[in-house]
Design brief:
42% strand; 6-stranded antiparallel β-sheet; 136 residues
């Protein structure tokens, strides 16, 4: 089991994970208060423009929301981190953006929209747990 866990960690940490596509929806900014202070997040829906388009919900936290300045309809390449956690016997997976690139036409047109296999154990929920109630 430890060998499998180490293999997964190397795979996730050693590869750059990116998704490319067009932003089809911006969800409202959510904010709240936790034991660590005030927090703010915004979720976005991206659709890949490949033979079999996929919709992916990703989020930006805090100052990254203003820094990224993501607009509906624009094509982007987003560098992401994946994180899962268990709460009350269920698993939740976050897709967190840490970098947004608007200069991706060469890479995007080649069909390389995903540098890693991304499969969520709970694709219908990308909520974040901040120590209080889960907002859904």
């Amino acid at each position: 089991m430890q060998r499998l866990r180490n293999s997964i960690n190397r795979k996730l940490l050693g590869e750059k994970m990116e998704i490319s596509g067009k932003i089809i929806e911006l969800l409202p900014v959510k904010s709240g208060q936790s034991s660590n202070g005030e927090w703010r997040k915004q979720e976005y829906i991206m659709e890949t423009e490949t033979q079999y388009p996929k919709k992916v919900c990703f989020m930006a936290w805090g100052d990254k929301i203003d820094q990224f300045n993501i607009k509906q309809g624009e094509p982007l390449t987003v560098s992401i981190d994946l994180e899962s956690r268990e709460y009350n016997g269920r698993w939740y997976t976050d897709v967190k953006a840490w970098k947004v690139s608007r200069d991706h036409e060469k890479e995007y047109n080649s069909g390389s929209y995903l540098n890693s296999n991304l499969q969520s154990t709970n694709s219908d929920d990308s909520s974040s747990y901040d120590g209080g109630e889960i907002p859904f």
